[in-house]
Design a protein that fits this description.
Blueprint (H helix, E strand, L loop, with lengths): L5 H19 L3 H17 L11 H11 L3 E4 L4 H10 L7 E4 L4 H10 L8 E4 L2 E4 L3 H10 L2
Parallel strand pairs: 1-2
Antiparallel strand pairs: 1-3, 3-4
Helix pairs in contact: 1-2, 4-6
């Protein structure tokens, strides 16, 4: 769980140090801007941007019941961010699984991607699709119950 927060914490700390240096050198306005930019970057790369993550087994069980796709992702992944933002409000209807929080999820992704933890990997009807187009994912979501 802490692994998912390493990058956001590092970004906030770096921004704080940079802002402190600018503040001490007499540029408080620039210090605030630098700190805000780093906090924004930390927020975008944190798990907070994504819907609540569930375990791989629970996601697969739910998907079998409602037919909705399962998205395997990890914090800091730019392709996962792109998928999340392009799906908009529809993202909350998918089952999101953080592979850094669930070793079983990481194993599912490795099995689907020749041993690599390539994300996002979207599983629709039991078939994995690596880094699919967001429009295709929206289409699959509209087909689900």
């Amino acid at each position: 769980m802490t692994r998912a927060w390493n990058l956001p914490v590092l970004l906030v700390l770096s921004g704080s140090l940079g802002a402190a240096g600018l503040f001490l050198s007499g540029a408080p306005g620039r210090a605030v801007v630098v700190l805000l930019v780093f906090v924004l970057l930390a927020g975008v790369h944190s798990p907070l941007v994504f819907p609540r993550s569930i375990g791989a087994l629970e996601a697969q069980r739910r998907s079998a019941v409602d037919g909705r796709p399962v998205v395997f992702w990890r914090p800091g992944c730019l392709y996962c961010l792109r998928l999340r933002f392009r799906l908009g409000r529809g993202a909350h209807r998918l089952h999101w699984v953080d592979i850094w929080r669930d070793p079983a999820a990481a194993a599912v992704v490795r099995a689907a991607n020749d041993g690599n933890e390539t994300v996002p990997t979207v599983v629709v009807a039991g078939r994995p699709h690596t880094n699919p187009d967001p429009a295709w994912v929206r289409e699959q979501l509209s087909r689900s119950v």
